[in-house]
């Protein structure tokens, strides 16, 4: 890897490879913390050095939680404007290997299940879901009704599963119950997400996914639309 132009968020081009060498040799909490600061900016953007670091992080990820989590965070942001799409494309084999590792980790039913699933969604280039999927205890999705353009709030959590109009003073008003998608009607990424969660005994997550890929009624015009289609159309990044 030629690091000469692969700067981190401190505008250095040599520090990241030094830190990677340190964590490859031994457990080093300070080095991992510094890598996180240099590779990811305020939790939102990944630096060119972060994309370049992916193959080495993946090699470490099998036996190192820090490497797995950091590689996952980088992947979730890989659709952003990092300017090194060629470097990302060159790491396709490492990314595929990372996907196998993440899926194996999911089967162990870890405590960081949703975090791992989000990383695996990013590996599958489902970046919009990788960045918003929660555990469905307190999840909200805002979108526009495709028929009347009214802003609709979709709630999926312990407090209810409904569409509503969000009012500044009154909260969610004119609630309409969501219509979950039957398992046999799911397709594409929704089917994969549901099957993966069900395989691993994640009942609440699987039920939330069936609602997310189900139908909602607009409280304003009463039209019915597919939640995931509308959310995806508004938020799916254009892959280069």
Which keywords apply here?
single chain, 240 residues, alpha+beta, four-stranded antiparallel beta sheet, two-stranded antiparallel ribbon, 11 helices, elongated
Helix content: 40-55%
Structural class: alpha+beta
Show unreliable segments: none
Order of helices and strands: HHEEHHHHHHEEEEHHEEH
State the helix count. Answer: 11
Distance from first to last alpha carbon: 22 Å
Strand content: 15-25%
Q: For the report, how would you describe the main beta sheet?
A: 4 strands, antiparallel
The radius of gyration over CA amounts to 20 Å
Number of strands: 8
The structural domain count equals: 2
Shape: elongated
What is the chains' assembly state?
A: single chain
Summarize model confidence as the mean pLDDT: 95
Strand ordering within the main sheet: 3-4-5-6
Written description of the protein model:
The chain has 2 domains: 15-127; 138-235, no CATH class. 48% of the residues lie in helices and 16% in strands. It is built from 11 helices and 8 strands. It has helices at 15-25, 29-39, 48-61, 65-76, 85-90, 92-107, 113-123, 127-130, 188-199, 203-212, 227-235, and strands at residues 40-41, 45-46, 138-144, 151-157, 160-167, 171-177, 215-217, 224-226. A 4-stranded antiparallel β-sheet has the order 3-4-5-6, covered by helices on one side. The chain is elongated. The protein is of the alpha+beta class and 240 residues long. Helix 1 packs antiparallel against helix 2. The two termini are 22 Å apart. The mean pLDDT is 95.
